Recover the amino acids of this structure.
């Protein structure tokens, strides 16, 4: 009991000592006098990472120009190029295309003079994006094609250039070229299993065929878009595909159009995609009206009107909700893809626009005030609940995570001083116990944040080639103290040349949680084994312990949605069960499998698979 109170007192003190957000702390460092150049550059990059795609993105223009000058002095071309990219992208998003073009031009000059290819490719892509928005499609295309010729070994930039070139050809109505470059983009997306982006490309291909009035091909690629969107689990992209499917059949098969549009509305609500919801409600009203279903048409128009009024009220009181802001500040190639898709959608709806306006005006005269009030109140409750949830996770991220990290550092210093000063064993044990408690709190916060971001679709899947052995050694280092405290040994059996295509943060979280559970549920003085071996088409990784094991019945249901399993460790350690959920979700994002083999009292072996990078390479 005393130990618990001691932790609470230390936590409260830590919150008082570390009340500021990461952004505020970084700004204070940069505002100090006589900051060393190397510190100023690295701190500015950290600030850019923190504020990118947030409401504090304006800080980029305040600090980055000075950081660029200092990076030039240090001859650090990698940092200089990254800083240029952040500054140019910020101006591009703000609509200041002249300044964006100047920044990207400077980036190109510096990168070419230093023979730094990644910087040159980003500059060419940025200059193409500027001219795309200015309507100079010939110049945009010339930049994209020049970048394409230089990016044969950079798969990420290849995807950007293929997609952007196809977008230009869409607006120039060169549909044969559109199909060629979109298909090249499809090949890269399939290789990296970027399902949401792949769905968007398939949707764009279907639009190109629709413009040529090829119904069979249009429907074929819409079906492929839906399949990829469902694999991604992105409710907004699923809603977008169903919307396109509904509009495509609205004139020929109204019953089918109603079904697709209602499905789009259902997924749009899950994604809080308000603009898409309003478009679907109005399209649905038009289909109902054409079928003589006046009451259904009116209800759809009324709901769209209430939604539009509610959005106006919310935007006057707050800047933007977190969910909507994430879509307004997506990566530039996705933003351009959305702009292209919107352009094509307007073409499809243009023939019926005048009739739609007359219908809305006529139905708006019908009064249903009580129903309007009920719907409006329900919507306000939903918005308030979402805001409360976002504030709660913001509290965890900014008001607890940083103080806990500070407290962990303070305890580490205390531990070193105790060993150095020859403190009594009892005092050392108390410090070690406190260190273990704080480590569990850190692990809980990390898992809670990972889980909440995964649930809200806020974690982007960014696969890259990774050295598996090096990544696992980093994870082992995190648990050296825990292993030492229980006298356990982590045996790693991984070929030194084994590489995987995976998201580094997600893979690190999977292995961290499995190793942590093995330590927690294994007796003292035992071995834990972490192995990896290559099978046809996949890499299989396992974590095996000789601990308390799991009931055979539970092993069959452990990774099912809705199943919640917790148990105390061999030293009465407690858990939340979130680690297993996170492992399951992150393995699914990689297109792999996860399972457990165990018997009660005989230990457990957790297995998961990743795609083999060698099987995806060309011969």
């Amino acid at each position: 009991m005393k130990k618990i109170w001691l932790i609470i007192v230390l936590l409260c003190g830590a919150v008082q000592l570390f009340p500021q957000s990461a952004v505020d702390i970084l700004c204070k460092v940069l505002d100090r006098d006589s900051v060393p150049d190397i510190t100023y550059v690295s701190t500015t990059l950290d600030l850019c990472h923190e504020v990118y795609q947030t409401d504090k993105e304006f800080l980029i223009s305040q600090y980055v120009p000075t950081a660029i000058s200092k990076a030039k002095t240090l001859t650090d071309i990698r940092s200089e190029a990254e800083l240029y990219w952040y500054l140019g992208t910020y101006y591009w998003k703000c609509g200041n295309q002249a300044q964006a073009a100047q920044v990207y031009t400077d980036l190109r000059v510096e990168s070419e003079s230093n023979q730094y290819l990644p910087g040159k490719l980003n500059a060419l892509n940025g200059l193409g994006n500027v001219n795309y928005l200015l309507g100079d499609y010939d110049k945009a295309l010339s930049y994209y094609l020049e970048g394409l010729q230089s990016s044969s070994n950079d798969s990420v930039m290849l995807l950007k250039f293929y997609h952007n070139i196809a977008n230009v050809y869409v607006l120039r109505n060169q549909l044969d070229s559109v199909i060629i470059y979109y298909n090249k983009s499809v090949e890269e997306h399939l290789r990296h299993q970027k399902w949401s982006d792949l769905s968007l490309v398939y949707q764009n291909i279907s639009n190109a065929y629709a413009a040529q009035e090829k119904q069979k091909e249009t429907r074929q690629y819409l079906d492929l878009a839906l399949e990829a969107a469902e694999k991604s689990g992105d409710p907004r992209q699923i809603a977008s595909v169903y919307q396109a499917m509904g509009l495509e059949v609205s004139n020929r098969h109204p019953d089918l159009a109603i079904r697709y549009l209602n499905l789009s509305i259902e997924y749009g609500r899950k994604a809080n995609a308000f603009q898409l919801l309003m478009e679907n409600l109005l399209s649905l009203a038009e289909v109902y009206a054409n079928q003589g279903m006046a009451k259904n048409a009116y209800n759809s128009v009324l709901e769209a009107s209430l939604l539009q009024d509610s959005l106006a009220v919310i935007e006057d009181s707050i800047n933007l909700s977190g969910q909507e802001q994430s879509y307004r500040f997506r990566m530039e190639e996705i933003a351009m893809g959305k702009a292209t898709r919107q352009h094509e959608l307007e073409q499809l709806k243009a023939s019926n626009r005048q009739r739609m306006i007359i219908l809305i005006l006529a139905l708006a005269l019908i009064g249903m005030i009580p129903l309007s009030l009920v719907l409006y109140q329900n919507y306000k409750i939903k918005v308030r609940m979402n805001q409360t949830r976002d504030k709660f996770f913001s509290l965890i991220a900014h008001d607890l995570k940083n103080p806990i990290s500070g407290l962990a550092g303070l305890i580490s210093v205390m531990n070193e001083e105790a060993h150095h000063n020859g403190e009594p064993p009892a005092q050392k044990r108390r410090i070690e116990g406190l260190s273990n408690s704080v480590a569990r709190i850190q692990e809980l916060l990390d898992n809670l944040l990972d889980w909440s971001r995964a649930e809200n679709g806020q974690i982007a899947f960014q696969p890259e080639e990774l050295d598996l052995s090096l990544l696992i050694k980093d994870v082992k280092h995190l648990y050296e103290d825990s292993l030492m405290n229980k006298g356990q040994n982590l045996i790693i059996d991984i070929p030194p040349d084994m590489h995987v295509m995976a998201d580094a943060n997600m893979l690190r979280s999977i292995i961290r949680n499995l190793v942590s559970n093995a330590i927690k549920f294994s007796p003292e003085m035992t071995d834990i084994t972490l192995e990896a071996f290559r099978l046809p088409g996949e890499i299989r990784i396992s974590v095996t312990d000789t601990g308390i094991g799991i009931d055979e019945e539970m092993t069959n249901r452990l990774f099912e949605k809705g199943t919640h399993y917790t148990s105390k460790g061999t030293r009465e350690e407690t858990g939340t069960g979130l680690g297993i959920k996170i492992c399951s979700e992150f393995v699914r994002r990689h297109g792999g499998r996860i399972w457990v083999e165990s018997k009660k009292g005989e230990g457990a072996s957790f297995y998961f698979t990743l795609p083999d990078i060698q099987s995806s390479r060309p011969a």
